[in-house]
Amino acid sequence: MRIADVLLADYDTEIRSAQRLFERLPSIEKADWKPHEKSMLFGKLVMHVATLPGFGAMVLSEPILDMAQGKIPSFAYESPAQASAVLADLAAKTRKLLANIPDEEMETTWQLKFHDRVFFTGSRILAYRTMFFNHFVHHRAQLGVYLRLLEVPIPGMYGPSADEPINLG
């Protein structure tokens, strides 16, 4: 079995979970809300989650990512529909790259830097898993907490949630 085949199952599950949260995003009026003074603004967090698959695409397609080159686009939270569209578009592009990457490419060295300052050097698969995928899951979960605090019902991610229990009888 190819490395990508194993990663795709996890990828699809986590993207679907994010899309389920995005279906419940509140309106733009909540964009400047945050649960704590040190927390990220709600709208910024939404767009961070929406655009992280684009970072995953860069990990899969480029041997070096120099953050000083400004290749990562930023988007402002304009509406739930816009955020969902950004997530869907970038997730589809990343999925296509992941589905087609050979094992040999996953084992090559990948690097993250800012000008001459190197932050990470390691295998592409390690960069994909830690710098992109785990990062994505972390912020997707953080978004779930924000939604809970905003009294938005949370869908089940890995089974039922308190808002969507399973009726067994």
TrEMBL record:
Residue sites binding a divalent metal cation per the record: 48, 135, 139
Keywords: Metal-binding
Highest taxon of source: Bacteria
Transmembrane regions listed in the UniProt entry: none
InterPro entries found in the cross-reference section: DinB, DinB/YfiT-like
Keyword Lipid biosynthesis: no
Gene3D superfamilies membership: dinb family like domain
A molecular function GO annotation: metal ion binding
Membership in a protein family: Belongs to the DinB family.
Protein name: Damage-inducible protein DinB
Originating organism: Terriglobus albidus
